[in-house]
Amino acid sequence: MMPRAEVNDRSDVEDVLRIEEISMSFGAVTVLRNVDLHLRRGEILGLVGDNGAGKSTLVKIITGYHKPDGGRVYIDGEETRLRSVQDARAHGIETVFQDLALVDELSVFHNLFLNREHTGGGWFKLLRNKSMRAAARRCLDEMAVDIPSIDVPVAKLSGGQRQAIAVARATRQKDIKILLLDEPLAAMGAKETALIINLIKGLCRNTGISVIIIDHNYTHLFDICDRINVIQQGQVTLNADLSEISIEELIELMVQKRRRELSKYMPRAQVPAETVVNPQTKGGSR
Questions:
Q1: From the DSSP assignment, how many helices (H) and strands (E) are in the chain?
Q2: Is residue 214 within a helix (H) or strand (E), and if so which, with residue range?
Q3: Residue 253 in 3-state DSSP?
Q4: Contact of 49 with 228, CB cutoff 8 Å
Q5: Among 179, 221, 256, 259, which one is least packed by beta carbons within 10 Å?
Q6: How far is CA 97 from CA 64, 70, 105, 168, in A?
Q7: What is the DSSP-derived secondary structure letter of residue 245?
């Protein structure tokens, strides 16, 4: 049974984040059209859609990087204007993008405190490395992140360990409520994928942090998420708990969209019925 398509479920009491009728254009190109989305406390929400569907733009609005042309943002039920990335952080919103923003030459503990270093010594602002080492070790141990040495440069870590450091840096911030993750499992092997999935689930379970994940791999999303939103051509076309939809139904939904797109350019030809979407890749295949 396919789930409901409406997306404006009003569960204000539970919602840590709610956005209503968000729209945004870049010049003549409309990227988002009256988007509604909500995120419950402690929930992991997956965002799915083709490249260019508007997922990254939506995330950048939530982070305060983009200012929408219209619509409203509510945090803990209060309408909020996110004027900058720093303003979003002050409201408890942190983001880990695909590039992770780590400095390869710096140690693990220095990356954990990047731009938020412990300093002392008055005017000279000397780094308090001992304090940062102890706090970094404690933070990683609490999150069950296995890093043998916090003194090694992050360039020597595996992809999964680097992603774990980026997530740890974001979530160790005071009063964090919402974590946004852009392709956190991209190009990882099975072992490292399991590491990050367990890390994110543990964070939500133990701290109540809410998470929004962008990922093209449907299998990953069904492993980690509580609910899923599909964004197509700047609109949320599906909002469903994972108990309401199967991975096969999600694939069929995406295939139907591609068939409609193909029909625009092949009006006199039969659109291939066997066009499929691989749940473990970004694109379709035949």
A1: 8, 14
A2: strand 210-214
A3: helix
A4: no
A5: 256
A6: 14, 25, 19, 13
A7: -
Contact 186, 98 (CB under 8 A): yes
Q: Are 70 and 274 in contact (CB under 8 A)?
A: no
Question: Buried (b) or exposed (e) across 185-197, using 16+ Cβ within 10 A?
Answer: bbebeeebbebbb
Residues forming CATH 3.40.50.300 domain(s) in the chain: 1-92+175-245
DSSP 76: T
Residue 129 φ/ψ, nearest 5 degrees: -65, -40
For residue range 170-215, list pLDDT tens digits in order. 988 888 999 999 988 887 888 888 889 999 999 899 889 999 999 9
Q: Which CATH number fits domain 1-92+175-245: 3.55.40.20, 3.40.50.300, 3.40.630.30, 3.30.390.50?
A: 3.40.50.300
Q: Which amino acid is at 35?
A: V
Q: What is the pLDDT of residues 74-99, one digit of tens each?
A: 999 999 999 999 999 999 999 998 88
What is the per-residue pLDDT across 211-248, written as a single tens digit (0 to 9) for each? 999 998 899 999 999 999 999 889 999 999 999 999 99
